[in-house]
Amino acid sequence: CYATGILECVSGGTVDTCVEGSQTGNDDNCNGIDENCNGIPDDNSFCLSIGETNISNIIIITDTYNILLESDIIGIFDSSAITNEDCNNIINGELLVGSSQWLDEISITIDAIGSEDNCDISGQLFPGFVENNEMLLKLIRNDQLYMVDYVLLLGSNTFGENEVTRILNIIALH
Fold it and tell me: φ and ψ at 66, to 5 degrees?
């Protein structure tokens, strides 16, 4: 929460004039600020921290088992993605590469962002999924994070450049 006031040193002691802030609104806007004062910034949201590239994997998710709820947020992750932009020190790690909220629809489409390694050509590196890495799904429901098991209808559970992956059903949350 935003707070006002200062913490000062006065005559060898501290004087705290800080006043706790009040709720300023919904806290799912990925700005790193705790607007609803619950101690968790950006709750109920996956915050995508990378920009678009020329590489993507389209993921279409359907839910014929009716496991998904209207407020669920689905995140697509690569556990060994390129996470930085430094050609001299490429770092791999878990990275959110796409997300969407389930809006009680028949299906949703998420464009997962792929990495671009142009280090040899232009000296540029862009973070994102790495081709042939496994696709991981996570879900936020009521401030709880779940790993997701799913059944494929089309494509594979690994990322590919300009691929289409169709997930038929979410089968388990754990």
Answer: 60, 40
